[in-house]
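Morning!

This is the sequence you dropped in the shared folder:
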Amino acid sequence: MITLTPSALEEVKRLMEKEQKPNAGLRIGVKGGGCSGFSYVLAIDEATPKQYDSIFEQEGIKVLVDAKSHLYLDGTTIDYKGSLMGGGFEFNNPLAKKSCGCGSSFST
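The structure's back. Tokens below.
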């Protein structure tokens, strides 16, 4: 399961309103690359699941994760920190053995 904190949920709702996609969901995944081997990917996406997607719902927000990414993200909590100096989404991934200083890539 992947969990969004209240502040992450608020930011996702704000982004969905800004992009005028009230029926969209949050697609979360990983891709090869980054300082540590894998990079996190977030996108406001149509809430229609693709084959083999895992779907989680929190406070009306659908979270979609492809099967391969779910293997690397299971148990992850996503938070959002706002800051004048560059806030953003933060991943607390219990499966990550190490991550880079910016927090956007990891390895297992």
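Headline: Helices lie at 6-18, 67-73.

More detail when I'm at my desk.
O.
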